Amino acid sequence: MNILEIYPKISNKYIPLSLLDVSTRNYIHWKKENLLFRYVDKPTNTIEKRERILLNVFDAFWISIVKELREFNVDFPTIRAVKEVLYANAKFNEELLDATPKDDFINSILNKIPESHRESFKPYLLDGSFIDLLKDFIDEKTIYLFKNIGVILFDILYREYFVSLVIAKEDEHVITQILRLDSTSKSSMTNTIDDLYSNYLTKQTILCIPLTNLVWKMFEDPNFEKYNTKYDFFTENEQVILEALNNDDCKEIKVYKHDSGDMSLNLMFEENVKNEKANEVRKILGLKQYEKMELTYRNNNHITIKNQKKIILKNQ
Question: Is 131 exposed, middle or buried (0-12, 13-18, 19+ CB in 10 A)?
């Protein structure tokens, strides 16, 4: 399973640059300085100057990272080095590959290739050299599946990982590491934290950006809501919850994060609905960090929704 199968529209350009609080002037400057990803290189004199700039989720995510780095006065060469890592071809999980029948693996890749190119591409799959030829066979929307930035978004949006970007310098070389913590596994979290402490925190100066938090902001910010809906980040039932956040007829929302039945968040509508709890509900919905939610209306009608993603995972 990949992120395009879950969110088929995620590569579509819906998000206005202004929503990221980045000026068009900065965007054009960053583009001239080769800080932004280009699927096909274009001469700098073709860079747009006045037209409205729309972004897909991957590039909005990257620009949010660039913005974060610039706020810490990180220089352009360092940002370019980080970009090279995040937009590099992802490495396949060798253990998973060994456990996957060869035909299944080949077919899973061929399904992402335009049908007219499949036969010519197949020999490169067999000899393992396909990863370097992806840009010649795959369109702009699909290429992100094979990039580190696409894997990171999949980990955050689907696998419930906490992902951080760690940047350090050794002898003027930029060292970029991507740290993943499986929020569902205590042992994984402990091992990753131990690795961070022993290999980085005690040995060198680092800059650490929690990438998961940047995605959280997309869901917490009410201004993103209509764009998140365009990307189908929310099911129809989840959209009922979002609408309830601004509905005077809704009295209470209860959030249950686990099978235990323990309620983890209770939003009473006697309070101001545009507070941190409402933003927390948006984030929980977007990242699917709940088992079920219950709505109670003032006429005492109840609605219960269950997390379809967790149901799918349990059935796999």
Answer: middle
